[in-house]
Design brief:
about 210 residues; alpha+beta; two-stranded antiparallel sheet; 5 helices; about 45% helix
C-alpha cells in the first residue's frame, strides 16, 4: 500500500510540476549537410524535415530529439549532456568549416510539459510551459535557440575582426603608411566581413537577398 501511494504521489508531483525537457543548443560549423547527415548518421530514426533543418527522433518516450540546422547549429532535447560530445563529433563529419570553439558557444533552456495546460503554451522568464512536445513546439524552440547560438558566435567573430581592424588602423595612424601591413591580414578581414554578411544575413534568414 505504501508503494502504491508513493507511486501515486510521484505521478501527482510530475503532473503538478510538469515533465521537464532540458534543451541545449550549440553552434558547431558554418554549414552542415543535413540530407547526408539524416541518411548516414541516423538512417533508422524517425525524421522531420523543415526549412534548413532536420529533427531526429532519438526516443519519443523520453522526449529525446536532435534538431540540426544547415547553417551550423545543433539543438538537443533531453539528450544526456555526457552524450553531446559524441553526437557533435559525428555531426562534424557532415559539416562545412567546423569551428574549433564548439563547446564555448551554447545556450540552455528548459521546457515543462503540462498535459492539462489550458493554453497551448505559457512563457516564463526561465522556462516554457507546453501542453505537449509536438513537432510545432520543437520547430519553434529549435529555430529560436539555433539562431541565438549562431548569432553569439558571429557576434564574437565580428568583435575579433573589429579589434584586429582597430589595431591595424592605429598602426597606420602612427606610421602614416600602409607599407607595414600584410596583404594577407587585410584579405582575411575582408573575407571575414563577407562571411558575416553571407551567413548571418542570408543563411539565418534575417533578410532575404
Amino acid at each position: 500500500t505504501h508503494c502504491i501511494s508513493s507511486a501515486a504521489s510521484d505521478v501527482y508531483k510530475r503532473q503538478a510540476n510538469g515533465v521537464p525537457v532540458h534543451v541545449k543548443a550549440y553552434f558547431v560549423a558554418k554549414g552542415i549537410d543535413i540530407m547526408r547527415l539524416a541518411g548516414k548518421l541516423y538512417p533508422s530514426a524517425k525524421q522531420n524535415f523543415q526549412n534548413k533543418c532536420v529533427t531526429i527522433q532519438v526516443n519519443e518516450n523520453l522526449n529525446q530529439h536532435i534538431s540540426v540546422f544547415s547553417y551550423g547549429s545543433v539543438v538537443f532535447y533531453n539528450i544526456p549532456e555526457e552524450d553531446h560530445s559524441n553526437h557533435i563529433r559525428m555531426i562534424k563529419t557532415m559539416s562545412i568549416l567546423p569551428i574549433s570553439e564548439i563547446l564555448q558557444f551554447n545556450e540552455s533552456y528548459k521546457l515543462l510539459i503540462h498535459e492539462n495546460l489550458e493554453e497551448p503554451s505559457v512563457i516564463h522568464a526561465e522556462h516554457l510551459n507546453i501542453r505537449e512536445l509536438d513537432n510545432s513546439n520543437i520547430t519553434i524552440v529549435s529555430a529560436v535557440m539555433s539562431q541565438t547560438v549562431a548569432m553569439d558566435w558571429y557576434a564574437s567573430n565580428v568583435d575579433n575582426t573589429i579589434e584586429r581592424f582597430t589595431i591595424m588602423n592605429m598602426n597606420v595612424q602612427e606610421s602614416g603608411a600602409f607599407k607595414n601591413l600584410k596583404e594577407t591580414e587585410l584579405f582575411k578581414i575582408v573575407a571575414s566581413n563577407n562571411s558575416v554578411f553571407t551567413n548571418v544575413l542570408s543563411k539565418l534568414s534575417l533578410i532575404h537577398i
